[in-house]
Amino acid sequence: MMFDLRDLYLQVIVDHNKAPRNFGKLAHFNHEADGYNPLCGDKLHVYLDVNDNGIIEDVSFEGEGCAISVASASLMTEAVKGTPLSDFQQKFDTFQHMVTSDLEELPDEEQLGKLAVLAGVREFPSRIKCAVLCWHTLKSAVEDSHQVAKTE
Ligand code: ZN
Which of 1, 49, 109, 118 is 20 to 30 A off residue 78, Cα-Cα? Predict the structure, then answer.
Protein backbone atom coordinates (compact mmCIF):
# COMPACT_ATOMS: atom_id res chain seq x y z
CA MET A 1 0.00 0.00 0.00
CA MET A 2 2.72 2.44 1.02
CA PHE A 3 4.63 1.59 -2.14
CA ASP A 4 1.64 2.25 -4.36
CA LEU A 5 1.20 5.62 -2.72
CA ARG A 6 4.86 6.44 -3.25
CA ASP A 7 4.64 5.51 -6.91
CA LEU A 8 1.68 7.80 -7.29
CA TYR A 9 3.51 10.64 -5.52
CA LEU A 10 6.53 10.12 -7.72
CA GLN A 11 4.40 10.13 -10.87
CA VAL A 12 2.88 13.49 -9.94
CA ILE A 13 6.34 14.98 -9.33
CA VAL A 14 7.72 13.60 -12.61
CA ASP A 15 4.67 14.90 -14.47
CA HIS A 16 4.94 18.42 -13.00
CA ASN A 17 8.66 18.50 -13.75
CA LYS A 18 8.18 17.43 -17.36
CA ALA A 19 5.24 19.73 -17.98
CA PRO A 20 5.33 22.52 -15.38
CA ARG A 21 2.02 24.35 -14.93
CA ASN A 22 1.90 28.16 -15.04
CA PHE A 23 5.41 28.35 -16.48
CA GLY A 24 6.50 31.60 -18.17
CA LYS A 25 6.13 35.30 -17.63
CA LEU A 26 2.67 36.73 -16.93
CA ALA A 27 1.42 39.40 -19.33
CA HIS A 28 0.15 41.34 -16.32
CA PHE A 29 1.56 41.15 -12.80
CA ASN A 30 2.01 43.48 -9.84
CA HIS A 31 4.54 41.56 -7.76
CA GLU A 32 7.63 39.53 -8.62
CA ALA A 33 10.70 38.10 -6.94
CA ASP A 34 13.81 36.02 -7.52
CA GLY A 35 14.77 32.96 -5.56
CA TYR A 36 18.02 31.05 -5.36
CA ASN A 37 19.01 27.85 -3.65
CA PRO A 38 22.83 27.85 -3.62
CA LEU A 39 22.95 24.32 -2.24
CA CYS A 40 21.53 22.85 -5.46
CA GLY A 41 21.76 25.77 -7.91
CA ASP A 42 17.98 26.11 -8.37
CA LYS A 43 16.92 29.54 -9.65
CA LEU A 44 13.35 30.77 -9.84
CA HIS A 45 11.53 33.94 -10.76
CA VAL A 46 7.93 34.24 -9.60
CA TYR A 47 5.27 36.57 -11.07
CA LEU A 48 2.18 37.39 -9.07
CA ASP A 49 -0.97 39.22 -10.02
CA VAL A 50 -3.20 40.19 -7.10
CA ASN A 51 -6.53 41.81 -7.95
CA ASP A 52 -8.35 44.64 -6.14
CA ASN A 53 -10.20 42.13 -3.99
CA GLY A 54 -6.98 40.67 -2.64
CA ILE A 55 -7.32 37.46 -4.64
CA ILE A 56 -4.34 35.85 -6.34
CA GLU A 57 -5.67 36.26 -9.84
CA ASP A 58 -2.67 34.67 -11.49
CA VAL A 59 0.76 33.37 -10.60
CA SER A 60 3.56 31.92 -12.69
CA PHE A 61 7.25 31.11 -12.55
CA GLU A 62 10.32 30.86 -14.72
CA GLY A 63 13.74 29.48 -14.07
CA GLU A 64 15.70 26.32 -13.96
CA GLY A 65 16.52 23.82 -11.32
CA CYS A 66 16.26 20.22 -10.28
CA ALA A 67 13.10 18.15 -10.72
CA ILE A 68 11.96 18.76 -7.15
CA SER A 69 12.31 22.55 -7.36
CA VAL A 70 10.41 22.74 -10.66
CA ALA A 71 7.67 20.30 -9.63
CA SER A 72 7.24 22.09 -6.31
CA ALA A 73 6.91 25.50 -8.01
CA SER A 74 4.41 24.06 -10.49
CA LEU A 75 2.32 22.50 -7.71
CA MET A 76 2.53 25.70 -5.66
CA THR A 77 1.16 27.87 -8.47
CA GLU A 78 -1.80 25.50 -8.82
CA ALA A 79 -2.37 25.54 -5.07
CA VAL A 80 -2.46 29.33 -4.64
CA LYS A 81 -4.04 30.50 -7.90
CA GLY A 82 -7.51 31.91 -7.25
CA THR A 83 -7.09 31.99 -3.46
CA PRO A 84 -7.09 35.05 -1.15
CA LEU A 85 -3.65 36.54 -0.57
CA SER A 86 -4.53 36.64 3.14
CA ASP A 87 -4.44 32.81 3.18
CA PHE A 88 -0.91 32.67 1.80
CA GLN A 89 1.01 32.74 5.08
CA GLN A 90 -1.02 29.83 6.44
CA LYS A 91 -0.36 27.80 3.29
CA PHE A 92 3.33 28.67 3.52
CA ASP A 93 3.45 27.53 7.16
CA THR A 94 1.51 24.33 6.44
CA PHE A 95 3.88 23.41 3.61
CA GLN A 96 6.98 24.30 5.61
CA HIS A 97 5.71 22.18 8.48
CA MET A 98 5.02 19.21 6.21
CA VAL A 99 8.53 19.08 4.74
CA THR A 100 10.26 19.55 8.09
CA SER A 101 8.06 17.31 10.27
CA ASP A 102 8.96 13.80 11.47
CA LEU A 103 8.68 11.10 8.84
CA GLU A 104 6.04 9.36 10.95
CA GLU A 105 3.71 12.34 10.72
CA LEU A 106 1.25 11.94 7.86
CA PRO A 107 0.73 15.04 5.73
CA ASP A 108 -2.58 16.82 6.27
CA GLU A 109 -3.97 16.02 2.84
CA GLU A 110 -7.17 17.89 3.50
CA GLN A 111 -5.24 21.13 3.87
CA LEU A 112 -2.39 20.36 1.51
CA GLY A 113 -4.22 18.71 -1.37
CA LYS A 114 -1.80 17.70 -4.12
CA LEU A 115 1.08 19.42 -2.33
CA ALA A 116 1.17 16.36 -0.06
CA VAL A 117 3.10 14.51 -2.77
CA LEU A 118 6.17 16.48 -1.69
CA ALA A 119 6.15 15.00 1.82
CA GLY A 120 8.63 12.45 0.46
CA VAL A 121 11.46 15.03 0.46
CA ARG A 122 11.72 14.56 4.22
CA GLU A 123 13.64 11.40 3.47
CA PHE A 124 16.23 13.45 1.58
CA PRO A 125 17.11 16.43 3.80
CA SER A 126 19.25 18.07 1.11
CA ARG A 127 16.18 18.29 -1.15
CA ILE A 128 13.96 20.06 1.38
CA LYS A 129 15.42 23.41 0.28
CA CYS A 130 14.64 22.57 -3.33
CA ALA A 131 10.99 22.05 -2.36
CA VAL A 132 10.64 25.21 -0.26
CA LEU A 133 12.52 27.58 -2.60
CA CYS A 134 9.39 28.50 -4.59
CA TRP A 135 7.47 29.21 -1.38
CA HIS A 136 10.18 31.54 -0.10
CA THR A 137 10.27 33.23 -3.49
CA LEU A 138 6.51 33.75 -3.58
CA LYS A 139 6.63 35.08 -0.02
CA SER A 140 9.27 37.55 -1.11
CA ALA A 141 7.02 38.61 -4.02
CA VAL A 142 4.03 38.97 -1.69
CA GLU A 143 6.06 41.15 0.67
CA ASP A 144 7.69 43.11 -2.19
CA SER A 145 10.97 42.73 -0.40
CA HIS A 146 13.02 43.19 -3.61
CA GLN A 147 15.59 40.80 -2.24
CA VAL A 148 16.56 37.47 -3.69
CA ALA A 149 14.87 34.82 -1.59
CA LYS A 150 17.52 32.40 -0.46
CA THR A 151 17.18 29.06 1.17
CA GLU A 152 20.46 29.57 3.03
ZN1 ZN B 1 17.25 21.47 -6.26
Answer: 1
